[in-house]
Amino acid sequence: MNDGGGIRPAYAGIARYVQSAGGGALEAKRREAEVLFRRIGVTFAVYTEGGDPERLIPFDVIPRILARGEWDSLRRGLEQRVRALNAFLADVYGDRRILKEGLVPAELVLNNEGYRAVMEGFTPPGGVYTVISGIDLVRTGPEAFYVLEDNCRVPSGVSYMLENREAMMRLLPNLCAAHRIAPVSHYPEELLDTLKSLAPPACQGDPTVVVLTPGPFNSAYYEHSFLADEMGVELVEGADLFVRDDTVFMRTTAGPRRVDVIYRRIDDEFLDPQAFRPDSALGVPGLMKAYRAGRVTLANAPGAGIADDKAVYPFVPAMIRFYLSEEPILQNVPTYMCERDEDRAYVLDHMEELVVKLARGSGGYGMLVGPHSTAEQRADFAARIREKPGDYIAQPTLALSTVPTLSEGGMAPRHVDLRPFVLFGKNQVRIVPGGLTRVALREGSLVVNSSQGGGTKDTWVLESDPPPMSQSMGAEGMTQTMGGMTQSLGKMDFGGTKD
Q1: Which Pfam families has this protein been placed in (predicted)?
Q2: Which domains does the chain possess?
Q3: Closest C-alpha to 356, from 393, 399, 388
Q4: How many angstroms separate the CA atoms of 227 and 212, rounded?
Q5: DSSP for 208-260?
Q6: Tens digit of pLDDT for each residue in 345-400?
Q7: pTM given for the model
Q8: Which of 284, 271, 188, 200 is nearest to 233 (CA)?
Q9: Residues 319, 367 contacting (CB under 8 angstroms)
């Protein structure tokens, strides 16, 4: 909906469908989607809770929609940001110009737990560190998208983007056909082409690409298997690979086969017991030596994590200006760094207004949402900040956009974010139109992570706006009966800006 309470043009077709679908139709589609996802095996794991950790990620059948013009602006901003992040990584492992200029504090980088000294003085094939990036965006106004955080290590979620689209086309084919939706199904092909483009100079012929997984007990194992299958490459574990003469080989029934590119879904510290954790049984001994010898490509590069550290995040606009001589297209969320005395004092005095995060946290853990917190929780976080101020940042509580979502009581507004996936290959950046929309299914919640009760939506980028609506769909025009409850979509309180 727009700020005037009417339906945004991009949602016109959805509005017509909801009006005419009939009582309970969407709820029936939601249940059908759950059966479909369960049959396919689209699951994720939560290790912090007892019992069976495997569960389905909730899927909402009302898509999140972006007009083509909105997406084109986002795409330009995403490409700019990833190029700057990659330049930053090349610099800090090379000449360190940005550190010498004092634009980014040297201690913030060189003492960072994500910094990998083994990468110093080494340039990956093609000069690309961030081959696959997931950039989390939030919307706070009709044209205002902000970057919430960057994910440059082993970003996940693209399989849900692809499966969500497949589910929508199965469940609501007529609705999909009525819209000119930009496709996303070519992402695996784009990913494979990107990986092959970065094969090391020693590669001869068609590069051999593999996906390296920690194994079936990893929370994202479904995605590892899915992407390997979609790309038509082997899914391997550490024990399936070995290094000989600084060259990586894969064990096969026909004998050893050379590996040129590894899309690794293993964290840095477990990649190679000779270079990182000696107790790791997940990695490949000698892998980093082969990498530095230019005999194999790793995507993403070890040490890329310093570019997505939340304490480094406030400096990304400065990186864009420094490396690209451009003004940032996408803006950061204002951020307070608790290691600074002035920022820390402000945060401690305004805990009830801010979102406080661990600088190296993920998954929605280690976070305080001030307006929804108790006095006891705020006191606990204040003590943590005083003890280790460098571990925390804080940001204002944004008036995040909401989108219509199917809830237990019918249609209701829920907060969302968006994670587009950016592929950076040799001299080319590729971004499929859309991304993963995550939705906070709990009423009033700002936490969209699946491990914290969030779900997902299909993300539609329309190639063109739908035709004009044949009749007014204003505040009185969208009444839908579902499960005995009548919801007037035009009268819903969307709590701020609406998508």
Answers
A1: CP_ATPgrasp_2
A2: 9-200+296-326+399-491 (no CATH), 334-396 (3.30.1490.270)
A3: 393
A4: 11
A5: PEEEE---TTSTTHHHHHHHHHHHT-EEE-GGGEEEETTEEEE--TTS-EE--
A6: 999 999 999 999 988 765 555 789 888 899 999 999 999 999 999 889 999 987 77
A7: 0.88
A8: 188
A9: no
